[in-house]
Amino acid sequence: MRNANPALAAIVIAAIAGFAAPPRACAADAIFADGFEPARWVLGYYVGYERALLAPADIPFDAVTHLMVGRVRPLAGGVVSNDFDIDDVNGPAFAHAAVEAAHAAGRKAILMVGGAGEVDGWRDAANAAHRPAFVANLLGRMDQYGLDGLDLDWEPLEDGDKPAFQALAAALRSARPHMLLTVPVGWFNPNYMEPDPFWAEIAPLFDRIDIMTYDMAGAASQGWDGWQSWHNSALYNTDPPTASAPSAVDVSVRLGFLPTGVPASKLGIGLAFYGYCWQGVTGPHQDGGSISSSDGTMSYATIATQYPVATTRQWDATAHVPYLSSVAGVGPQACNFLSYDDAQSVADKGAYAKAHGIGGVIIWTIGQGHVAANPPGSRDPLLDALRGSYLQ
Q1: How many percent of the chain have pLDDT more than 90?
Q2: Which domain holds residue 50?
Q3: Is 237 exposed, middle or buried (0-12, 13-18, 19+ CB in 10 A)?
Q4: Most buried among 2, 145, 275, 324, using CB within 10 Å?
Q5: CATH no. for residue 268?
Q6: Among 299, 296, 309, 251, which Cα is nearest to 274's?
Q7: If you average pLDDT over every residue of the chain, what do you get?
Q8: Total structural domains in the chain?
Q9: What percent of the chain has pLDDT over 70?
């Protein structure tokens, strides 16, 4: 997932007061009745530093089957952090409240471990010398909060890391055969990648292998050599994909992961509840430009309430995603090209996943999609769209 931002831990602690409230009633509570596990999972990441965006009582569990509670970090010697990017008192309170809300709604709760920027901690904690302690500490954290499983977010997982990662997953699976175990993985770029048989090799250890099909664009001026402007999370691209903007959900699924032998039912695709603000270009497939803001700053809630969506929105019929376009620049960040997902594109992605037998959809993050300014019943339009196209 994305790198957690401890700087945001200064959000008013009083928001935690709402955590004690019971979760709202859910129309889909029967989804886990009698031990039944749905074939289609919606895994919503819910992180401590965004706790003011969405209280546990307001999480729409009728559209979320698994709450991904984040996060703990792997540390030297196999130690596991416990502050959830808040602190050692309010962090555990946040985690307990999140898990209790999920379980009260009949849902599962999974502990997010790691995130972007934590690779050094992973490598030290998962090496052969520290692995037994690390496994024990991970399971201890899981039990401390009554969680149902672990999400092993090792980013980036380079070739040299794969033996230790596989050994760690095998040790966890051996210790707790019935726990839930998931892993988010990078998207596929056909320009320089070949399908990696490693994913099929480790698939028996995991319940879901979730492709992070977002952050799939970048500017040439910012290190993405040969790229033009492109969408953060396009559903489709041309076939074959263009070399200057090759990414799309379908490209990763169809060309990158299914050919390895991983069953579609074990794969997940990713949705970003945030957008990309480009400056210097006004749409996709243009030379130049740069990205000035994204995750956190450009949440869907911010876009929906502070940007002139009604007057500047356009639809890319190839990519199946919307965008805002303005030569003068729109909104507080003066975006010339704002790539994001809305209810229409989320519904299309859910329908794609359902039609292709994809086993899960991950969301980074559900808090960023919560529009608190909307009337009750319409505050989570993206999750509402996903529920209708994927879960039902």
Answers
A1: 90
A2: 6-273+342-391
A3: buried
A4: 275
A5: 3.20.20.80
A6: 299
A7: 92
A8: 1
A9: 91
